Amino acid sequence: MTSSIFLTMAGWTSDKFRLSCIDNNGLKRTLLKMLILDNGTKNSNIEAERTATEYLVDQGVPTANANKSLLSFLAINALELSAPASPVLLECNAPTVPPGWLQLSGHPKSIAPLANGIVRKRISGPNDTELLAYRQLMVDPHAIKVVPKFLGVHQVAGEHFIDLHNMLHGFTEPNVMDIKMGFRTFTESEVSNTALREDLYQKMIAVDPSAPSADEHARQAITKLRYMQFRENMSSTQEKGFRIEALRMRGCSPVTDLKTIKTDHQIRTTIGHFVNGRRSIAKDILKRLRQMRTLIEKSEFFQRHQVLGSSVFIVYDDHQVGVWLIDFAKALPLPPGTKVTHRRRWQMGNCEEGLLHGFDELIRTMEAVQQQAQHSSVRHQSRATDV
């Protein structure tokens, strides 16, 4: 794939962004790299040279419905799925699965859209972390206004599923963006082992040979904590408390490989392109982000949990804007006696993850984007008057 949308964003320009918007067929040969939103995992199982549209048309789905389904695929993957689904999920719901459902050979199937704006997601069982989180979120008067609506849990052939609101329901040809929140997206248990690992050292130098210290080069091994922090420092995660994971504009191919967007200018430029200079869109997103921050600050759920790896999911079309906080697979109850601000820097044992710090920074960024859109509108009106 030679399209510059898959290059790093160090040289991000408007021209590179526009390359992704040539036509609706731009998804050809991109599904092998398409919007994998689980903190860097690459899916090598998607068949090259074969698009979702081609697959669906082969299955007898009308082209219009097949193209529309690509947006659903994006929204579904933005839910950060972790458990592979079984054929039971599709077999038991075959009569109600809409024609836009994607089922690519080899692709891990964790979620399926049902009728009436519902998606069904496989979970590990009755004690699944995300299920427990959603049950508590739905009875929290503040948190329930921030997240997709939880519609129930089901058991089919020994497997468990949850039903969630499909965030794209009611939107027409929407633009979508996924923003990973927090300056820590890994659990403390993941990095508690201080053993030196040669494999992680090799992964580090494969990305950046200059990253290891002199001692690390000498040992040719690093801890998992060191590697995780190195990986997250490549993006805006550690400084800003958020990073842009992926986006898709109406009529365009998905834009991915955004994890190296780090500077203020790169972030503002990317989000500015996403809102397409539309001041009203930026204003509505900003209003919703401020509302969500206030609700999270008041929520008992967020006072009792560390929320790792969650995302702000933004969707808009010509008529409406929607913003939600999604993915609670790593929403972990705090140990007894532990309190978090969601803003303090993380140290081992304090359970801070920087969720609200990320909201603070994202809101500041959106304020700058809105201001820039306003200035652009004023300049445009001034030029029109001069003419």
TrEMBL record:
InterPro entries: IPK (IPR005522), IPK_sf (IPR038286). The keyword Phosphoprotein does not apply. GO terms for molecular function: inositol hexakisphosphate kinase activity. It comes from the Eukaryota. Keywords: Kinase, Transferase. The keyword Kinase applies. It holds the Pfam family IPK. Belongs to the inositol phosphokinase (IPK) family. This is Kinase.
